[in-house]
Amino acid sequence: MTHVNARKDSPAVPWAGARVGGLMAIQRDHRIDLGSPEIQAFVLNQQSQEWYERSIPPAGFSASGATPKLSGRIDADPNARAIRMPFCLIETYDVLEGSAPGSPGVTVGTFDVNVPSEQQVVVEVYADLFARDGIADAAKTAIIAAFDAFDPASGQDPDDYMATVLRADAGLQPSMFRTNLFARVRKGQVVEHTEERDRKLAPYRGAGPGSVWDRSGAEHRLQGDPGYFVQRRLSAKRVGTRLVSSVPVETPNPYRIEAPAAEFDRALDVVVNREAENASCSGDEYQIQKWKIATLLTFPEFMVVWRDLEINIGCGVHIVLSYPVLQIRWSDLTLYAFARYPSDLGKLIENAVTDCAWKAALAGAVIGVAMGNFASAIAAFKALFTECLKAKFQDVITCMLPGLALDAEVKQQWQDI
């Protein structure tokens, strides 16, 4: 499960520069946004190892021919954490029921698995020199020589340095040159995070912390010899992959409720009654039954947050780097089936409702996909539940609202990976 990326707002950094002789000549401030589409595309391009920001001369100036000068390097944040760019491999799996040697089984559902990765990057900042169009060759040569001779690591202020150069050569003017800052991004190692894949696939392999309950109240563990899914001959087969530039955003579902266990019932009642009201079935003459179906413990979620790093990289150059940070949190997931219906149906119908709820919830198309594709499991549950009741009574019960709910109880809050 994933959450929407969140970007921290910050004031824009202007294209400002130090003044030499009263003119804007040396760029001293620069913003680098690692979230730009160009850099995102670079991260996904496995054939490319470095990316250069375009260095565009201002009007009336052209490239001087001088070699751009490395002004500084950024490879970690203030917490000494490497700068890393998240991207994500999305794996699609079919859920098969009844699989056996020589028989693939029947496809009953599908789900996606997010496998986030982080591309470590190093950001280098360069200064580029432009010369005014039409200046004399001697002046251009002198400006290039001064630019080449300056050492950003010396700690000397570039304005003071250029003021000294201009005083020593009356033929030079600050209007003859401009400097521009640009970034070079180089790739390092890639770190893959398989926590979601490991948890989602574990039940199909007879592993993973969690259980499934049946109508008698008997608990069947996911991990065992065999585990519940293995015993049911539920398996998952990867059928496709695709690469995207960030952790996908999951569509919110009102029946995925983040609440402590003690508060879940009340929170679910609010959501169910709101749906009933929209269906013109509100009132006090209804009741809600809930059945605990399954648990999946310590389930991971990922989110990307954006931060701004302000840094002086030397020689008076001020950089603002907008960079992403991948975060993770852990929750215990509990799956419930529920049904809301008129209170005066009688025991016979109530028993049928309970029977149909359990049959639908434990169908492969529901229990086999619920933790990986909750929306699909809800649709399958409602269809199977309704079909079951029709088979018993040859009619539809007015204002019967069946469904699934997922209690996501957070056990460990968001933290940087």
Find the count of extended strands (DSSP E, 2+ residues).
17
From the N-terminal CA to the C-terminal CA, the straight-line distance is 16 Å
Q: Which word captures the global form?
A: elongated
Biggest sheet features: 8 strands, mixed
Low-confidence stretches: 1-23
Sheet-strand content, in percent, reads 35-45%
Overall radius of gyration: 31 Å
Oligomer: single chain
Chain-averaged pLDDT: 90
The level of helicity is 10-25%
- Counted by DSSP, the helix tally is 9
Provide structural commentary.
The chain is α+β, with helices and mostly antiparallel strands. The protein is 24% helix and 42% strand. The strands form three sheets. Strands 1, 4, 11, 12, 14, 15, 16 and 17 form an eight-stranded mixed sheet that branches. Strands 5, 6, 7, 8, 9, 10 and 13 form a seven-stranded antiparallel sheet that branches. It is elongated, with a radius of gyration of 31 Å.
